[in-house]
Amino acid sequence: MSVLISPSLLAADFSRMGEEAARMEQCGADWLHIDVMDGHFVPNITLGAPVVKCLRERTGLFFDVHLMISHPLQYAGDFVKAGAQMITFHVECEDDTAETIRAIKALGCRVGLSIKPNTPVEAILPFLPQLDMVLVMTVEPGFGGQSFMPETMPKVKALREAAPGLLIQVDGGVSAKTIAMAAENGANVFVAGSAVFGAEDPQAAIRQLRSIAEPFAG
Ligand code: DX5
Ligand code: ZN
Fold this sequence. Notes:
The protein is α/β, with parallel strands linked by helices and 218 residues long. The chain is 34% helix and 20% strand. It has helices at residues 17-26, 49-56, 72-82, 97-106, 153-162, 179-184, 194-197, 202-217, and strands at 4-7, 31-37, 62-68, 86-90, 110-115, 133-137, 167-171, 189-192. Helix 2 packs parallel to helix 3 and helix 3 (72-82) packs parallel to helix 4 (97-106). The protein starts with a strand and ends with a helix. Bound molecules: D-xylitol-5-phosphate (DX5) and zinc ion.
Protein backbone atom coordinates (compact mmCIF):
# COMPACT_ATOMS: atom_id res chain seq x y z
CA MET A 1 0.00 0.00 0.00
CA SER A 2 1.45 3.35 -0.94
CA VAL A 3 1.73 6.47 1.17
CA LEU A 4 -0.17 9.68 0.42
CA ILE A 5 0.95 13.13 1.53
CA SER A 6 -1.80 15.75 1.80
CA PRO A 7 -0.50 19.24 2.65
CA SER A 8 -3.01 21.29 4.63
CA LEU A 9 -3.86 24.59 3.02
CA LEU A 10 -4.71 25.95 6.46
CA ALA A 11 -1.01 26.76 6.86
CA ALA A 12 -0.84 28.60 3.50
CA ASP A 13 -0.96 32.34 2.90
CA PHE A 14 -4.73 32.79 2.50
CA SER A 15 -4.24 35.91 0.36
CA ARG A 16 -2.50 33.74 -2.25
CA MET A 17 -4.42 30.51 -1.88
CA GLY A 18 -4.61 29.68 -5.60
CA GLU A 19 -0.85 29.96 -6.08
CA GLU A 20 -0.21 28.02 -2.88
CA ALA A 21 -2.44 25.17 -4.09
CA ALA A 22 -0.72 25.08 -7.49
CA ARG A 23 2.68 25.19 -5.76
CA MET A 24 1.83 22.07 -3.75
CA GLU A 25 1.15 20.20 -6.98
CA GLN A 26 4.57 21.21 -8.30
CA CYS A 27 6.14 20.18 -5.01
CA GLY A 28 4.92 16.59 -5.38
CA ALA A 29 1.91 16.52 -3.04
CA ASP A 30 -0.50 13.63 -3.66
CA TRP A 31 -3.59 15.38 -2.32
CA LEU A 32 -4.52 18.84 -1.10
CA HIS A 33 -6.14 18.93 2.36
CA ILE A 34 -8.75 21.67 2.67
CA ASP A 35 -9.95 22.45 6.21
CA VAL A 36 -13.49 23.75 6.46
CA MET A 37 -14.49 25.16 9.87
CA ASP A 38 -17.84 26.72 10.75
CA GLY A 39 -17.13 28.48 14.05
CA HIS A 40 -19.63 26.13 15.70
CA PHE A 41 -18.24 22.60 15.55
CA VAL A 42 -14.82 24.17 16.22
CA PRO A 43 -14.00 27.66 17.51
CA ASN A 44 -12.60 28.93 14.20
CA ILE A 45 -13.90 29.86 10.74
CA THR A 46 -11.97 29.19 7.54
CA LEU A 47 -13.56 28.90 4.10
CA GLY A 48 -16.57 27.58 2.22
CA ALA A 49 -17.49 25.93 -1.08
CA PRO A 50 -17.10 29.10 -3.24
CA VAL A 51 -13.41 29.19 -2.32
CA VAL A 52 -13.00 25.49 -3.15
CA LYS A 53 -14.61 26.16 -6.54
CA CYS A 54 -12.03 28.87 -7.31
CA LEU A 55 -9.17 26.65 -6.19
CA ARG A 56 -10.45 23.89 -8.48
CA GLU A 57 -9.53 26.09 -11.45
CA ARG A 58 -5.94 26.42 -10.24
CA THR A 59 -4.83 22.83 -9.71
CA GLY A 60 -5.51 19.24 -10.75
CA LEU A 61 -4.63 17.95 -7.26
CA PHE A 62 -7.07 15.58 -5.56
CA PHE A 63 -9.17 17.66 -3.14
CA ASP A 64 -9.33 16.11 0.32
CA VAL A 65 -11.96 18.22 2.09
CA HIS A 66 -12.11 17.98 5.89
CA LEU A 67 -15.44 19.26 7.18
CA MET A 68 -15.18 20.42 10.79
CA ILE A 69 -18.77 21.58 10.74
CA SER A 70 -21.91 20.71 12.70
CA HIS A 71 -24.11 19.99 9.66
CA PRO A 72 -22.16 18.20 6.90
CA LEU A 73 -25.37 16.76 5.42
CA GLN A 74 -26.56 20.24 4.52
CA TYR A 75 -23.31 21.35 2.85
CA ALA A 76 -21.72 18.21 1.31
CA GLY A 77 -23.45 18.78 -2.04
CA ASP A 78 -21.99 22.28 -2.36
CA PHE A 79 -18.48 20.95 -1.78
CA VAL A 80 -18.90 18.11 -4.29
CA LYS A 81 -20.14 20.59 -6.90
CA ALA A 82 -17.15 22.79 -6.09
CA GLY A 83 -14.74 19.93 -6.87
CA ALA A 84 -14.18 17.91 -3.68
CA GLN A 85 -13.09 14.33 -4.38
CA MET A 86 -13.05 13.09 -0.78
CA ILE A 87 -15.29 14.51 1.88
CA THR A 88 -14.42 13.69 5.47
CA PHE A 89 -16.83 14.65 8.23
CA HIS A 90 -16.85 14.06 11.97
CA VAL A 91 -18.68 11.30 13.80
CA GLU A 92 -19.21 13.93 16.55
CA CYS A 93 -21.25 16.21 14.25
CA GLU A 94 -24.97 16.80 14.72
CA ASP A 95 -26.16 14.88 11.64
CA ASP A 96 -26.89 11.18 11.41
CA THR A 97 -23.65 9.38 10.47
CA ALA A 98 -25.11 6.61 8.29
CA GLU A 99 -27.36 9.04 6.43
CA THR A 100 -24.49 11.47 5.82
CA ILE A 101 -22.25 8.68 4.50
CA ARG A 102 -25.03 7.56 2.12
CA ALA A 103 -25.67 11.12 0.94
CA ILE A 104 -22.00 11.79 0.15
CA LYS A 105 -21.67 8.50 -1.75
CA ALA A 106 -24.87 9.21 -3.67
CA LEU A 107 -23.21 12.43 -4.85
CA GLY A 108 -20.48 10.29 -6.41
CA CYS A 109 -17.82 11.39 -3.91
CA ARG A 110 -15.50 9.33 -1.73
CA VAL A 111 -16.28 9.54 1.96
CA GLY A 112 -14.16 9.66 5.10
CA LEU A 113 -15.18 9.66 8.75
CA SER A 114 -13.13 11.43 11.40
CA ILE A 115 -12.75 11.10 15.16
CA LYS A 116 -11.47 13.65 17.65
CA PRO A 117 -8.75 12.65 20.14
CA ASN A 118 -11.17 11.93 23.00
CA THR A 119 -13.68 9.88 20.99
CA PRO A 120 -13.25 6.12 21.34
CA VAL A 121 -12.54 4.14 18.19
CA GLU A 122 -15.70 2.09 18.78
CA ALA A 123 -17.72 5.08 17.56
CA ILE A 124 -16.59 4.50 13.99
CA LEU A 125 -16.09 0.72 13.80
CA PRO A 126 -19.69 -0.01 12.71
CA PHE A 127 -19.28 2.27 9.67
CA LEU A 128 -15.98 0.86 8.35
CA PRO A 129 -17.50 -1.21 5.50
CA GLN A 130 -19.12 1.94 4.05
CA LEU A 131 -16.03 4.16 4.25
CA ASP A 132 -13.21 5.01 1.85
CA MET A 133 -11.13 6.53 4.64
CA VAL A 134 -10.95 7.09 8.38
CA LEU A 135 -9.31 10.22 9.78
CA VAL A 136 -7.84 9.92 13.24
CA MET A 137 -7.28 13.44 14.55
CA THR A 138 -3.90 13.68 16.24
CA VAL A 139 -4.72 17.12 17.72
CA GLU A 140 -7.97 18.75 18.83
CA PRO A 141 -9.47 20.08 15.59
CA GLY A 142 -9.68 23.84 15.11
CA PHE A 143 -6.17 25.17 14.62
CA GLY A 144 -2.93 24.36 12.83
CA GLY A 145 0.47 24.26 14.49
CA GLN A 146 -0.44 22.13 17.52
CA SER A 147 1.56 19.22 18.96
CA PHE A 148 0.96 15.65 17.82
CA MET A 149 -0.82 13.54 20.48
CA PRO A 150 0.84 10.08 20.69
CA GLU A 151 -2.05 8.85 22.87
CA THR A 152 -4.21 8.68 19.71
CA MET A 153 -1.98 5.94 18.23
CA PRO A 154 -3.80 2.94 19.72
CA LYS A 155 -6.84 4.00 17.66
CA VAL A 156 -4.79 3.94 14.45
CA LYS A 157 -3.47 0.52 15.38
CA ALA A 158 -6.95 -0.87 16.16
CA LEU A 159 -8.30 0.47 12.85
CA ARG A 160 -5.44 -1.02 10.86
CA GLU A 161 -6.09 -4.39 12.47
CA ALA A 162 -9.83 -4.11 11.77
CA ALA A 163 -9.42 -2.99 8.15
CA PRO A 164 -6.12 -3.94 6.49
CA GLY A 165 -6.94 -2.24 3.17
CA LEU A 166 -8.41 1.00 4.50
CA LEU A 167 -7.02 4.48 3.97
CA ILE A 168 -6.17 5.73 7.45
CA GLN A 169 -5.38 9.43 7.64
CA VAL A 170 -3.73 11.29 10.50
CA ASP A 171 -4.06 15.05 10.85
CA GLY A 172 -2.42 17.42 13.30
CA GLY A 173 1.19 17.89 14.32
CA VAL A 174 2.48 15.54 11.61
CA SER A 175 6.17 16.28 10.94
CA ALA A 176 9.46 14.52 10.23
CA LYS A 177 9.63 13.88 14.00
CA THR A 178 6.17 12.29 14.39
CA ILE A 179 5.30 10.68 11.05
CA ALA A 180 7.21 7.45 11.75
CA MET A 181 5.09 6.77 14.84
CA ALA A 182 1.88 7.26 12.88
CA ALA A 183 3.10 5.11 9.97
CA GLU A 184 4.32 2.38 12.29
CA ASN A 185 0.85 2.13 13.80
CA GLY A 186 -0.75 1.81 10.37
CA ALA A 187 -1.55 5.28 9.02
CA ASN A 188 -1.03 5.71 5.26
CA VAL A 189 -2.43 9.18 4.49
CA PHE A 190 -0.61 12.06 6.14
CA VAL A 191 -1.87 15.61 6.47
CA ALA A 192 0.84 18.17 7.16
CA GLY A 193 0.27 21.91 7.45
CA SER A 194 3.10 23.70 9.22
CA ALA A 195 5.62 20.96 8.41
CA VAL A 196 5.18 21.63 4.67
CA PHE A 197 4.18 25.29 4.35
CA GLY A 198 6.57 26.34 7.13
CA ALA A 199 9.52 24.58 5.48
CA GLU A 200 12.09 26.54 3.52
CA ASP A 201 11.80 23.94 0.77
CA PRO A 202 8.29 22.40 0.77
CA GLN A 203 9.25 19.96 -1.99
CA ALA A 204 12.07 18.58 0.14
CA ALA A 205 9.75 18.47 3.16
CA ILE A 206 7.18 16.39 1.26
CA ARG A 207 9.90 14.11 -0.05
CA GLN A 208 11.29 13.64 3.47
CA LEU A 209 7.87 12.85 5.00
CA ARG A 210 7.23 10.29 2.25
CA SER A 211 10.62 8.64 2.64
CA ILE A 212 10.16 8.24 6.40
CA ALA A 213 6.65 6.77 6.09
CA GLU A 214 7.16 4.53 3.05
CA PRO A 215 9.18 1.74 4.70
CA PHE A 216 6.24 1.11 7.07
CA ALA A 217 3.68 0.89 4.27
CA GLY A 218 4.67 -2.63 3.24
C1 DX5 B 1 -6.66 21.07 12.43
C2 DX5 B 1 -6.72 20.80 10.94
C3 DX5 B 1 -5.44 20.34 10.37
C4 DX5 B 1 -4.32 21.34 10.46
C5 DX5 B 1 -3.01 20.62 10.59
O1 DX5 B 1 -7.92 21.32 12.92
O2 DX5 B 1 -7.70 19.80 10.68
O3 DX5 B 1 -5.61 19.90 9.04
O4 DX5 B 1 -4.26 22.19 9.36
O5 DX5 B 1 -1.99 21.55 10.76
P1 DX5 B 1 -0.55 21.15 11.32
O6 DX5 B 1 0.02 20.15 10.39
O7 DX5 B 1 0.16 22.43 11.35
O8 DX5 B 1 -0.79 20.57 12.72
ZN1 ZN C 1 -7.73 18.83 8.67
